[in-house]
Amino acid sequence: MNESSWGAPPHTGYWGPSDHGPVQGVAPAGPAYDAHVGPRPSRTQPMPVVPDVPAHGGNQDDDRGVARMSGPSFRNEMPPAQPHGVAPQKPEPMPDAPQPSPRKKSAGRDLSAAIGVGVGLGAVIVASLFIVKAVFVGVVAVAVVVGLWELTSRLQERKSIKAPLVPLAVGGAAMVVAGYVRGAEGAWAAMALTALAVLVWRMTEPPENYLKDVTAGVFAAFYVPFLATFVALMLAADDGPWRVLTFLLLTVVSDTGAYAVGWRFGRHKLAPRISPGKTREGLLGAVAFAMVAGALCMQFLIDDGTWWQGLLLGLAVAASATLGDLGESMIKRDLGIKDMGTLLPGHGGIMDRLDSLLPTAPVAWLLFVLFVGSG
Asked: How many domains does the chain have?
């Protein structure tokens, strides 16, 4: 490799005069043979002194400052010798590399779609609550049927579990209506009949996986429609719409407080193996928000209610809503899915919105009965 390939032409005196004589392997200048006289004696001509180039594969970063590859092109890193009496010029500083901008926290969901869908659902619920109670019962029954469809579909897709949807859907809707019309006794009777219908319906297919399918069916009947029946039980009271509204508000406020505080201040994971996004700070936010909202709702919305009862109600709702959320996260993690469905933009499926409401309904119903009676 010649010197020009390293980015600097050869010149005399790079390291000073050479003390090794002529460079080996280079022909002397001038003709070596004269046709008339014959061979002339060889004479050594002065040659420009060139730097010793290390053999191929040697250390090219020795103490002489031999040129090396650096950056996108080859260049000599040793500055050229300066004339006597001239101060060496300082190299211009290289501009600092642009620093990456700090990564902003992402909320993890489409907030505009989530808010729009939430407002729309809230309007439907409030309108049906305070216009005709029976309409709200129908809304709950429809939500139960859609939730059962999502749950059974995911079970079949991910685990090959065929929980019979027809008896579950019919029995689930009947369970909600029976709870509103006949109270707790009607809800329990409808639950028992739905479980029996699941056992019988599955008998029409081959016996393989019978136990697994009916077990999943009974679990689905309890998890979705039976827990939702307690909303109908709250609605049956004289001030039922206000009880249901309080229950819904506290659950939504708890989820919102956990989401807002956890997103902004969350540092310590609550249950990383189940739901990595949930934090202890978020749980504290859920409790604080729900207790304040509970005190206000019990004081101003519920007949004979007091603020301290609202504090206890808010604490219980925050705990049950968090456990319900973790419970469905456990199910989804076992199934290997992120959401139960895609029906609600920004929220997932119906079951992704019912996860906190379903286990909270019996807790709220029981505390209402203890604090102000069944109405």
From this structure: 2
